[in-house]
Design goal:
mainly alpha; FKS1-like_dom1; Beta-1,3-glucan synthase; 1,3-beta-D-glucan synthase activity; globular
């Protein structure tokens, strides 16, 4: 693919998700330099394959590890018609052995097949979307599995007819305002409070603060993801995967996250 075609992908994603133009430009330059660096030691096709494997599709990619740990493979295999959230929890809590299309082996085979058959366009698109989500994530970068979940929701939404049929570009800054800022405010308010118009650190022990580790832990298990509720009291997992990204702005963080690490610090 040419540099112009790659840039067009970044522009298209920016218009569909409301990323900031300056951030988009930074991430585009970063990916191009990364591909150029790899291409100096191998063919351009191998450069793209290895970069995509490092970030998303490869055996050691953090996204792939998270995807199977959180059992999102079952979510994708069951589909909307069978209520993915409920079906996944039933199989986990009830100890039901999942066979056939939902077994781990077949899921891994489907994953490898999908990665091997993926077009260069889709590899670039996934890399671009991941980098754009990461580029504006701020403190959410310290909860990488949460960022994986955001990317998964965004990727599902992009491939939906609703997104592809959208004609008008969304407002610039929408991703930062609606997806990242609520999470940042929750993290900030755990450690700081406003006193006389200024943010002051709360006099709380670490064991009393919901921190990065606690937030990240929620996204490692299907039971944790199933806890994500919206302001209308519905669960996010009960929506079709392609509909979840646009519902993230309605997540009630105060009801979702809870303390999991109760260690005390003496210093």
């Amino acid at each position: 693919m040419s540099a112009e075609e790659i840039e067009d992908i970044f522009l298209d994603l920016t218009q569909k998700f409301g990323f900031q133009r300056d951030s988009m430009r930074n991430m585009y330059d970063f990916l191009m330099q990364l591909l150029d660096s790899r291409a100096s030691r191998m063919t351009p096709n191998q450069a793209l394959l290895t970069v995509h494997a490092d970030y998303i599709g490869g055996q050691h990619a953090n996204y792939r590890k998270w995807y199977f740990a959180a059992q999102l493979n079952l979510d994708d295999a069951v589909g909307q018609s069978n209520n993915p959230g409920l079906q996944r929890l039933k199989s986990v809590k009830g100890g039901v052995k999942t066979g056939g299309a939902k077994s781990l082996d077949s899921a891994l085979n489907r994953w490898r097949s999908a990665m091997n058959n993926m077009s260069h366009y889709d590899r670039i698109r996934q890399l671009a979307l991941y980098l754009l989500c990461w580029g504006e994530a701020g403190n959410v970068r310290f909860v990488p599995e949460c960022l994986c979940f955001i990317f998964k929701c965004a990727d599902d939404y992009y491939r939906s007819p609703e997104c592809q049929n959208r004609v008008e570009p969304v407002r610039e800054g929408l991703y930062l305002e609606n997806i990242i800022k609520p999470l940042y405010r929750f993290m900030r308010d755990q450690g700081y409070e406003v006193v006389d118009g200024k943010f002051v650190r709360r006099e709380k022990d670490h064991a009393q603060i919901i921190g990065y580790d606690d937030i990240n832990q929620l996204f490692w298990y299907p039971e944790g993801i199933a806890r994500i509720v919206l302001s209308d009291n519905t669960r996010l997992v009960d929506a079709a995967p392609a509909q979840r990204f646009m519902k993230l702005m309605k997540v009630d963080c105060n009801r979702v996250f809870f303390k999991t690490y109760f260690e005390k610090r003496s210093i």
